[in-house]
Amino acid sequence: MDSQVLNQLFRQLFRHPACQSLRPQSSSALRRSDCVRLACRDHRQCRTFLTRRGQTKRRGTDDSMMWHKRDDYPKDITEELKTYPLVTAKDLRHQRERPRQVKMLTREFIDDSLYNPNYGYFSKHATIFTPGEPFEFNKMEDGREFNQLLGDRYTEFEDRLDEIKPDIARQLWHTPTELFRPYYGEAIARYLISNYKLTLYPYHDLIIYEMGAGNGTMMLNVLDFIRDTDHEVYQRTKFKIIEISPSLADLQMKNLRDSVNAAGHMGHVEIINRSIFDWDTYVHSPCFFLALEVFDNFAHDAIRYDTKTEAPQQGGVLIDADGEFREWYSTQLDPVASRFLRVRQAAARRPFPTPLGSKMLRGLRNSLPFQNGYTLPEYIPTRLMQFFDILHAYFPAHRLITSDFSTLPDAVPGLNAPVVQTRYKRRTVPVSTPFVHQGYFDIFFPTDFNVIEDVYRAITGKLTRVLSHEEFMERWAYIEDTETRSGENPLLTWYKNASVLTTV
Ligand SMILES: C[S@@+](CC[C@H](N)C(=O)[O-])C[C@H]1O[C@@H](n2cnc3c(N)ncnc32)[C@H](O)[C@@H]1O
């Protein structure tokens, strides 16, 4: 990472007096079972750094475009909004420099920021913690000791990386696959074998796709388990990874080669370095499709509503000649966002949350003389909807198994809003807007499982079940493996804010 740019960026961040709010250290600061992708002893929080959501003002470019006048930088962007081209992440794919003098929809900006092959967050900086040797939960006293041990292993892991290549801005996080290896993978493998044997065996092979496989640990744990428990099924198992990041795809292959069972597994594995959104191969065979902590990074669109008319407006960002970001909204929704709103409306089996609030609140608001013109934005999962389109079009006989965060603390303002954060000198730094220097910040969203379950059903025509992470693990894991001496079980008590959706 370019440390000069970073130092400058962070000097700015910490100079801003309102930004500094050091959270008190507590024994749960590292555990953070409510959001376990954050792992740091010192959690420095920063707000209102780059964008301040203040007064909004309507300016006339045409009737559909509005921009935010910021009190601290009241530059009129009417002319720029008219003349700058609207570009997509795809248009910028081959660009080496971050774009200037363009405007982008929110989802396209997020996509570019996370996945641009040259400067995107996932192109170089993503490192997923792995404990190396599995944790021995049965030898630990309680959850506190696990917390402590995890902190120590985290530090050792990063010290080792720094010995090879120091990096003050290493982006490091952990996932349940890694923390609870191999037990988490074994629970998934048990689910796969049972469902395969119940419905597909012996007429079909066991074909597993995993989208976004991180270090490749799930693949290794699943294959090890199947080989050890059911050799006949193992002979018929194919594990195919679809991975967007070239460096993670390389790491997955390296970890496969380095594993003790490499020789056996090699013939069962295929690693395809491609974004799922570029997928164009029809897979007619029945298959299981794993997506674990991948939905959270799928880009969303920002929609706000006129509180009087309740009409939606779609948000975007303009990047000016100096690289400054300005938010804008348009009354004209693009086809992807408007389709999502239509599908959600048609598919919803229960009321879904809206930033307009309840009917009663709306009535009350409309009777008040002074009111804000627009709601806070809601972030709608437009890329996720497009992923369901791909499943439906190319994997008609799939069965999805997906796990992700249902809620996230410390999100930016708005409904279903993302957490936007980076790591600097081993500290997590959250900021208050997604419109920040592309590639330096993780941007990840909660998943509203009620809404996406209905959208998935509507698009694929399949039936589903949603369980909490804990319920799924109680059904499919050997929970004795992860129990501490006090009876506390981190596999069940961590990830309280995660759910699992499966096709039934
Ligand atoms: C948070 S990591 C989770 C890794 C792993 N599933 C785990 O739980 O340890 C997200 C993974 O999804 C991959 N990914 C994100 N978007 C993707 C896309 N559009 N197509 C394929 N892989 C994607 C990332 O490169 C990364 O490997």
TrEMBL record:
Q: Which Pfam families match?
A: Methyltransf_28 (PF02636)
UniProt lists the family membership as follows: Belongs to the NDUFAF7 family.
Q: Which reaction does it catalyse?
A: L-arginyl-[protein] + 2 S-adenosyl-L-methionine = N(omega),N(omega)'-dimethyl-L-arginyl-[protein] + 2 S-adenosyl-L-homocysteine + 2 H(+)
If you read the UniProt record, what top EC class would you report for this enzyme, in one word?
Answer: transferase
**Ranges in coiled-coil conformation:** none
| Role description | Arginine methyltransferase involved in the assembly or stability of mitochondrial NADH:ubiquinone oxidoreductase complex (complex I).
Q: Name one GO cellular component term.
A: mitochondrion
Alphabetically, which GO biological process terms does the record hold?
Answer: methylation
Q: Which UniProt keywords apply?
A: Methyltransferase, Mitochondrion, Transferase
SUPFAM superfamilies, per database record: S-adenosyl-L-methionine-dependent methyltransferases
Q: Which domain of life is it from?
A: Eukaryota
What name goes with this protein? Protein arginine methyltransferase NDUFAF7
The answer on whether this UniProt entry bears the keyword Mitochondrion reads yes
Q: Does the keyword Ribonucleoprotein apply?
A: no
- E.C. no: 2.1.1.320
What InterPro entries does the entry give?
A: NDUFAF7 (IPR003788), NDUFAF7_sf (IPR038375), SAM-dependent_MTases_sf (IPR029063)
- MF annotations from Gene Ontology: protein-arginine omega-N symmetric methyltransferase activity
- Cell compartment(s), UniProt: Mitochondrion
Native species of this protein?
Byssochlamys spectabilis (strain No. 5 / NBRC 109023) (Paecilomyces variotii)
